[in-house]
Amino acid sequence: MRREPTARQARLATELRRLREAADLSAREAAALLGVSPAQITHIESGLAGVSEKRLRLLAANYSCADDELIEALSVMATDRTRGWWEEYRELLPTPFLDLAELEHHATSLREVQFLYIPGLLQTEEYARAVYGYRVPELPSEDLELRVRHRMRRKVILDGPAPTPYEAVIHEAALRIMVSDRAASRAQLVRLAELSEADHITVRVIPFDLEGFAGATSAMTYAESALPKLDTVVRDGPHGAAFIDSEAQLSAFRTLFHRVEAVSLAAVRSRDFIHRLAKEL
What we know:
- By secondary structure, this protein is α/β, with parallel strands linked by helices.
- About 50% of the residues lie in helices and about 10% in strands.
- The protein is built from 13 helices and six strands.
- The chain has a six-stranded mixed β-sheet, sandwiched between helices.
- A hairpin with a 7-residue loop joins strand 4 and strand 5.
- The chain is elongated.
- The mean pLDDT is about 95.
């Protein structure tokens, strides 16, 4: 039994519950088909207990699931024993910090929309420290530095030998808000422009003077998976990050991303835009 499943383990559990419900079976009926107790099905579907590949495939067969690609993807999730760098921060940082790093690690590509802040994966250390330093109540210096180090470690997915494709759409407001002093803000813009030169990183800007834009509530991180139905959207809220995975919502957020992407400046124009703002500081 697990004390606290990770977001990935919880997602596997959710998908198994969805397969059972699609088959119109109760937990008790599923348990009878598998030859286990109903409590075992409940534990599997809550992520508190793992499931072997053999048992997962048996469950899928009992649920008459004919989606071979989905079964294969779920089998990979069930047998994954990755203990990434983020485990160093377990019991040091809130669980959503670790879940986000795990999600980014497994994503096949990432898309992000931000209106008030530079995306975390593109932040400089000084910028990140200023963001965390504004919290109320104020964080102890040790906790603040833990958060900054964790945010900097997340960049491994962009800096490694097989970097994850990443696209960010950033509103001009986020580029102009100086979360720290002028020098740090200039350094952040210069670094953002440098990062946008990489082949796997695309940065687009939504300018203030864009007419007819009412999409300022569509901030998100969209993490693509091996299958679209296993994608995840992360949204920041007043009480922490929310992980969204229902097919209807995923479809809506895909549409929202394409809308903001379509009205943003092209990558080259965005890079010039950022350089110009940096020179103005």
